[in-house]
Specification:
Helix 1 (19-29) runs antiparallel to helix 2 (35-55) and helix 3 (114-124) runs parallel beside helix 5. The chain has 11 helices and 8 strands. The chain is α/β, with parallel strands linked by helices. The protein has a 6-stranded parallel β-sheet with strand order 3-4-5-6-7-8. A two-stranded antiparallel sheet has the order 1-2. The chain is 38% helix and 14% strand. Strand 5, helix 9 and strand 6 form a beta-alpha-beta unit. The protein has helices at residues 19-29, 35-55, 114-124, 138-145, 158-179, 189-192, 197-200, 206-221, 253-258, 303-313, 340-361, and strands at residues 79-86, 95-105, 132-136, 183-187, 228-233, 263-267, 287-293, 322-326.
Length: 362
């Protein structure tokens, strides 16, 4: 199916998980369900996540990320070198993956990996045939998975680990492109947190640290063709509890201009994100995944409200560059409590807004 030339719609990644899927993962991790049984249930569930998005009128869909325990730990499905155990107090005592050995691909080729297999499965169950797959960025993985005590024998610094994971991610991006995926997106909320003075204060040179993140992203996408390359930026999504970082995108504009990507997914619905005026400062080659639908609160924005947000952005960026999207995924954590029907209603209104915009500005 050909995408609309103006105001196509997409999701950022995750859709809310029904309770039975949350229970499924708990049962699997506690040994009550086998890997084979988990995959059987997921093979039956994932087409519903796709159908819900397509039923809402979304053009570029995901598989809901329903197969993933977390959007960060998905890398452990394609690479070895990690341990999973209870973390210390700094990480809330939850289960956490930590790199403790050399990171190596666990499949003969990236085309044989679960990510590529699951993408082909999703495409086979999609009516639109336009699929987005999100991966964690190397920088985010280095912050989340490298531990100064447990990881040093394998990688002396988190920067060393970040560089080690780049070729594995690049192989996965290339395999997803070969599978026919429309968009591969690298998620990096940590890059966006450099808009916040409190986050910047943690680094001696926050601008250099942010540029380090950008270079890693560019290295992952380098040489990959045949797929839309996207980066997702958000101030961390805590669901009903809100967000973590605050501030406009202005402090990281030099870094965003240095990203060699096709699309930036940016949130603008929450007041913490600042104004869309900053879009003027982005290069014309970059399309904007405009966060114009709230994904955190209970209020379901009317199509007319979404239209107003998009038209405000059109004061600063050409309409041809805009893609409509929620601010972030609807299930930022595996225990997120956003109802699936609420997400469906929000996506349906987003699609209705896109139709109104095409009629007015097409």
């Amino acid at each position: 199916m050909k995408l609309p030339a103006l105001f196509p719609t997409t999701v950022v990644g995750s859709m809310p998980r029904p309770q039975f899927l949350k229970d499924l993962f708990d049962d699997f991790h506690e040994g009550r369900v086998t890997e084979r049984e988990r995959e059987r249930v997921l093979d039956e569930a994932v087409p519903y996540a796709i159908a819900a998005q397509e039923g809402a009128g979304v053009d570029v869909v995901s598989d809901g990320e329903w197969r993933r325990f977390s959007y960060v730990a998905v890398v452990t499905d394609v690479a070895s070198g990690f341990t999973r155990d209870f973390s210390g107090e700094g990480r809330d005592g939850k289960y956490w993956h930590t790199v403790v050995g050399e990171v190596k691909p666990t499949y003969a080729t990236a085309d044989d990996s679960p990510l590529a297999h699951h993408a082909r499965f999703a495409l086979a169950h999609s009516r639109t045939g336009a699929l987005k797959v999100a991966l964690p960025s190397p920088y985010m993985l280095s912050l989340r998975m490298w531990d100064p005590t447990q990881s040093k024998k394998a990688y002396a610094t988190r920067e060393e680990f970040a560089h080690a994971i780049v070729p594995i991610l690049r192989d996965q991006v290339a395999a997803l492109a070969r599978a026919g995926v429309h968009t591969v997106q690298l998620d990096d909320p940590h890059l966006c947190l450099f808009v916040d003075p409190a986050a910047r204060a943690k680094f001696d040179d926050p601008d250099a640290e942010a540029m380090h993140c950008v270079r890693l992203i560019n290295q992952v996408f380098e040489g990959v063709e045949g797929v839309t390359k996207a980066v997702h930026l958000c101030r961390r999504n805590k669901g009903r509890r809100g967000w973590a970082g605050e501030g406009s995108y202005d402090p990281i504009m030099p870094q965003l201009r240095a990203l060699d990507v096709d699309q930036l997914m940016m949130e603008f619905t929450i007041p913490a994100a600042g104004d869309t005026r900053c879009l003027r400062d982005l290069p014309g080659r970059t399309r904007i995944g405009l966060g114009c639908v709230d994904c955190r609160g209970e209020v379901i924005d009317a199509p007319e409200t979404i239209v107003q947000r998009v038209e405000h952005a059109m004061q600063h960026v050409a309409k041809e560059r805009l893609v409509l999207a929620p601010d972030c995924g609807f299930a930022p954590g595996n225990a997120a409590d956003i109802p699936l029907d609420e997400a469906y209603a929000k996506l349906r209104n987003m699609s209705a807004a896109a139709r109104i915009l095409r009629d007015k500005h097409g």
